[in-house]
């Protein structure tokens, strides 16, 4: 039997939003356009320029001047020659080959499975934070059991069929097409919620409201940043309401990240007959991060994504495309180039992961415990200042060392995703010994792949600093002089003694 619809508390909106619309972020409409249409190109660039046809990076990228030889070519012919060479080296399938029916159906089936488990599995009803217009939304939470169900099915299939399990072969056969299908899904979803947001009326009993930064009046920017704060839909015939933002944040894309990692691990085993310690530590480290997020699902309700940001292309693309397809780049790289770390490097990287996870989890647990019950013995000793809004800001413990100390743990964990790839690219060349086969070599490639495999660590640093700046601005607007008083007591932003 489908669960009954239960998504809102009894409170009724009492008045207009307490927070007025604020200015542009992310560079305004120009930045929104560049991000919206530039990031899909970046995803394709990662997929094609670091590939299993010629190598990582594609050989011509190491000697760009050779792309325009012979020198007798005109400028126009030279560019065409360069494009033709890159197409050949990257295995470019043509625009028509970027999508196929198999990948499209598979993508829809993946979302359908996620939705089915959301509806059918037992769930905990959790109350969200108070909305600016008053009242609280209820959230149905069972992403952890949904993940265990899916991973259990994959484990059983792998036990029975090994690397030939259909899920793994399907992903590795349709990787580019799956990327395209999810890009299109994110664009459709962003457009759907944008159009639907114009039905939001002030004082409505459905507790629908616009995001403070999402109704600037510029169509492109609002579509990108997200116009409605918590868009929801009711599933026909099942009488179950789904919070689109919370659902997409934790389910198809986040778990999809680990499913891609596992598919690449299966590919490595199928190609070489073994699984390396490098791909194991990457996959396990990332799985720990994801499973931790799913297990602590209620913690998402106090994040800036849920409390402040609307749901537009920024979050839709980030959740469904950017996270699974770029965060899994290291495993994709290692599936073709099997790096053996050895016990010393393995232990060192594991130590970095352990330290990052400890800071991340301990600080977040302390914050959540204090928010839930300040008198809990584990946090009752902590010092804090109370703001004019009634909020309490911790000035001791983890949060007395830095205002966003959890971001430091987050970033340290990202190191353990990148370090296992070491510092070399790879070339794929025809085998002289066995005609018709290919070899993976690192001759002349030292350091060539660093921008690709270490991209996540660099990008994540920029992301966390940008998010910290957004958090600071939000808190400054909310708490006013109380925030300045808090900053005087807790001086450091993320890294104690440095930043």
Task: Give a brief description.
With 499 residues, this protein is mainly alpha-helical. Helix content is 55%, strand content 7%. The strands form 4 sheets. A 3-stranded antiparallel sheet has the order 1-8-9, with no helix packed on it. Strands 2-3 form a two-stranded antiparallel ribbon.
Give an overview of the whole structure.
Helix content is 55%, strand content 7%. It has 499 residues and is mainly α. The chain folds into two domains: 99-336, no CATH class; 341-499, no CATH class. A three-stranded antiparallel beta sheet has the order 1-8-9, with no helix packed on it. Helix 6 runs antiparallel to helix 12, helix 10 (277-295) packs antiparallel against helix 13 (329-336) and helix 14 packs antiparallel against helix 16. The longest helix has 30 residues, at 343-372. The chain starts with 27 loop residues before the first helix and ends in a 10-residue tail after the last helix.
Question: Which secondary structure elements does this structure contain, and how are they paired or packed?
Answer:
Elements: H1 28-49, E1 55-56, H2 75-90, H3 101-120, E2 124-127, E3 138-141, H4 143-161, H5 166-173, H6 175-196, H7 219-225, E4 232-235, E5 240-243, H8 244-250, H9 252-272, H10 277-295, H11 304-307, H12 313-327, H13 329-336, H14 343-372, E6 384-386, E7 392-394, H15 398-401, H16 405-418, E8 426-430, E9 438-441, H17 450-453, H18 455-479, H19 481-489
Helix pairs in contact: 1-7, 1-12, 3-6, 5-9, 6-12, 8-9, 8-12, 9-10, 9-12, 9-13, 10-13, 10-14, 10-16, 14-16, 16-18, 18-19
